[in-house]
């Protein structure tokens, strides 16, 4: 079997690694000159030297929002360290170590941008790639395609009355790098997901006033510095001010959109049988395998997960079926499975389409389902437990939670180090 992996971020690396483990002939195309995707910090914003949009949304000061104990790969954990919440440079170094340890680099064609992935009549895939250095294109055929292009690069902006009237600066978190531009400014941070909360805190060190605007029903309880206030959604922008849902208005200099990203696969031909509907990628079996064309797989769609471990699990899952070590269910059975999941998420849990791939507290069941369905090794439950603990700590104490230190004891248990013997 010959497989194309699109993207050499952490998902693509896991995909290549698992292909090699199964002696599958694999080629990975990566449009930049580095592995690591999101974790590669690029000071510039806008376009790169080849005129392509800059992929990474990484900012300079970033420390992980999960402890390193849940951020490794199942067979390649992040080594011991004096702290649990690492700087972005340490994660990137780790991904490069992983790449070299498993000898993945030779399989990656850097500065190769996939422009088209299209199914052929012979049930194969045609992949058209631009060699960015030579500015030439070529086509190759594959039996399977693993899409590993990430989903934090195409900014999503809310519909907002008066946006074009506002005379100040408007910026999406995709283009945020350092807090200097916020010095002494009055800023509205739009959105209170993990990055909105983190960035409100970060820019509050420089800004005069930060208004964290969101539509959560409750006030966020975490204790912010005194120059950060919370308000319900902005409903309108005027020349120099923002109007909020409660009818109040504030003079502001910058609107900072932390409103997330769109799932985007610009290279996928319409005939691939998968579409994106408000960030729900469908029809897919178990958030991974294209139901209409099962030789198409997406590694890394779910969010609020133990990302690298899940990528590894999803790649192992896909290969079990591609290599016919297990029979794929019928198309009808896969569609029925997806329908059950939709009913559960939309009707029972009240999720929106944008939350279709959201895991969080559901992640443990999802991992077990993948592993058991494919009869492959499960992820240790301790990952889910520690992920959930860390997410709660983030919400409770945004300012201090990164000081926590953990150690995994076994597949079920972890300890918080400072709670034990003060070490
Ligand atoms: P990416 O890392 O985005 O990699 C995709 C790769 O595909 C890129 O290298 C890109 O250049 C390449 N590519 C895209 N299109 C093409 C194409 N057409 N042709 C060729 N190559 C292409 N997760 C955590 O677990 N902990 C954290 O603390 C954390 N912090 C985060 C902070 C920020 C600011 C962001 C944006 C994300 C964070 N994440 C975090 C999530 C993070 O994105 C995932 O952990 C993970 O790195 C995603 O990996 P990926 O391989 O799916 O995508």
TrEMBL record:
InterPro entries xref list: FAD/NAD-bd_sf, Flavin_mOase, Flavin_mOase-like, FMO-like
Keyword annotations from UniProtKB, A to Z: FAD, Flavoprotein, Monooxygenase, NADP, Oxidoreductase
Gene Ontology terms for molecular function: flavin adenine dinucleotide binding; N,N-dimethylaniline monooxygenase activity; NADP binding
Cofactors required: FAD
Entry superkingdom: Eukaryota
EC number annotated for this UniProt entry: 1.-.-.-
Name this polypeptide is given: Flavin-containing monooxygenase
């Amino acid at each position: 079997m010959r497989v194309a992996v699109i993207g050499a971020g952490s998902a693509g690396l896991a995909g290549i690694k698992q292909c090699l483990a199964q002696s599958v002939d694999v080629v990975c195309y990566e449009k930049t000159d580095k592995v690591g995707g999101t974790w590669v910090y690029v000071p510039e914003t806008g376009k790169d030297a080849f005129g392509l949009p800059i992929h990474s949304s990484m900012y300079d000061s970033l420390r992980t929002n999960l402890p390193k104990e849940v951020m490794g790969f199942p067979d390649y954990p992040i080594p011991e360290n004096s702290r649990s919440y690492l700087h972005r440079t340490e994660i990137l170094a780790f991904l490069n170590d992983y790449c070299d340890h498993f000898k993945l680099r030779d399989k990656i064609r850097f500065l190769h941008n996939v422009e088209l992935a299209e199914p052929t009549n012979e049930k194969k895939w045609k992949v058209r790639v631009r060699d960015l250095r030579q500015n030439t294109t070529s086509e190759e055929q594959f039996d399977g395609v693993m899409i590993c292009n990430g989903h934090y690069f195409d900014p999503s902006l809310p519909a907002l009355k008066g946006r074009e009237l506002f005379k100040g600066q408007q910026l999406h978190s995709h283009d945020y790098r350092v807090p200097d531009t916020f010095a002494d400014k009055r800023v509205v941070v739009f959105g209170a997901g993990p990055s909105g909360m983190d960035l409100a805190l970060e820019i509050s060190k420089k800004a005069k006033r930060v208004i964290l605007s969101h539509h959560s029903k409750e006030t966020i309880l975490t204790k912010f510095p005194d120059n950060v206030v919370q308000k319900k959604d902005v409903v309108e922008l005027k020349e120099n001010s923002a109007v909020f849902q409660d009818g109040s208005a504030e003079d502001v200099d910058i609107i900072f959109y932390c409103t997330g990203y769109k799932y985007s696969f610009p290279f996928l031909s319409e005939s691939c049988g998968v579409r994106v509907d408000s960030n729900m990628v469908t029809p897919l079996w178990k958030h991974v395998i294209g139901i209409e064309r099962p030789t198409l797989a997406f590694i890394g769609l779910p969010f609020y997960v133990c990302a690298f471990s899940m990528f590894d699990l999803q790649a192992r899952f896909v290969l079990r079926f591609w290599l016919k070590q297990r029979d794929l269910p019928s198309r009808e059975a896969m569609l029925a499975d997806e329908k059950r999941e939709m009913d559960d998420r939309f009707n029972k849990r009240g999720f929106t389409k944008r939350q279709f791939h959201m895991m969080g507290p559901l992640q443990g069941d999802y991992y077990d389902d993948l592993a058991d369905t494919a009869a492959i090794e499960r992820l240790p439950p301790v990952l889910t437990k520690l992920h959930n603990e860390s997410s709660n700590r983030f919400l409770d104490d945004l300012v201090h939670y990164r000081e926590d230190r953990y150690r995994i004891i076994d597949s079920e248990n972890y300890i918080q180090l400072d709670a034990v013997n003060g070490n």
